[in-house]
Amino acid sequence: MKAYTINRYSKEDKLQLAEVPQPKAKNHEVLIQIHASSINPLDFKLKHGEFKLFMPYQFPLILGHDFAGTIIEIGPQVSLFKVGDEVFGRPADYHIGTFAEYISVHENDIALKPKGISFEEAASFPLVALTAWQAIIEKAHLKKGQKIFIQAGSGGVGTFAIQLAKHMGAMVATSTSVANFDLVKSLGADVVIDYKTQDFETILQDYDVVLNSQDNKTLEKSLRILKPGGKVISISGPPDPAYAKEFNLSWIFKLIMFFLSNKIRNQAKKLQVDYSFLFMKANGQQLAEMGNLIESGVIRPVVDQVFSFDQVNEAMEYVSSGRTKGKVVVKVL
């Protein structure tokens, strides 16, 4: 099969189109013909080697964390799906590789594709949807009537998180450029801040939750807009000891993450708020729940642009420009 691979960690190297063996479906796995994939910042971080110390991958490595496609083969112990099912998903870590024609995925990591949307739209959802769900519902326990600040509202995670938070009855503030005001308002944002000319710290106060996706300076400011007992969930770091424990990392990484997050955790403690880091995990059951929301029209896809399979490197360059609205998708089939 054809797939895009990297042979080393690098910021400069482009993905290489190669002919690689087609995977086979193991016991609890399904083999999927990929119709579409999408690009995430996580792909760049892996390519650049940002996680190489505690997430070592072997080369050649096929990148890609989102897909939508059709099951063409099932493993002998698969019970949830059948050949011909149209599905979408985010493969588990160490089993990624959606910049390819086929992928074998554990049945627990996928869900049926929502009806009424295309494969390209379905492929735009898994990673950002799971990130938003696990941050807002699992970690923050957002409740009706609470206030949440979602940074970078026009990005992949932001466009989904705004819609999810509004569905839950929250009051949503977000930041973006003026050019994207209409987009985030159409998704449900109540308060929109121009990050280029306005300082959210002077506008927002007594918030219950912040979904942080920006730098450390923005993270520190985010702590100060929370009410006592509020929570900051960060998807951009720094990783904390709870993350190291959850992923069963060695004692040395637990120690490293203790020191990496020590400053921000101490600041949070002084302000009587909570800080936690989120690294999203694959979860087919959660995807199925979100699929119902998508199918019912509660949450809609936001796709900026669709590239062909032979334009994967161009798609990566476009995403790295930072000008995207929602998700950038690659049409594989």
TrEMBL record:
- EC number assigned by the record: 1.-.-.-
* CDD domains for the chain: MDR_like_2 (cd05289)
Sorted alphabetically, which InterPro entries does this protein's record hold? ADH-like_N, ER, GroES-like_sf, NAD(P)-bd_dom_sf, YIM1/Zinc_Alcohol_DH_Fams
Domain of life, per the record?
Answer: Bacteria
Q: Which residues form the Enoyl reductase (ER) domain?
A: 11-330
Molecular-function annotations in GO: oxidoreductase activity
Gene3D superfamilies in the cross-refs: Medium-chain alcohol dehydrogenases, catalytic domain, NAD(P)-binding Rossmann-like Domain
UniProt keyword terms in alphabetical order: Oxidoreductase
Q: Which PANTHER family does the UniProt record give?
A: ALCOHOL DEHYDROGENASE RELATED, RETICULON-4-INTERACTING PROTEIN 1, MITOCHONDRIAL
Output this protein's name: NADP-dependent oxidoreductase
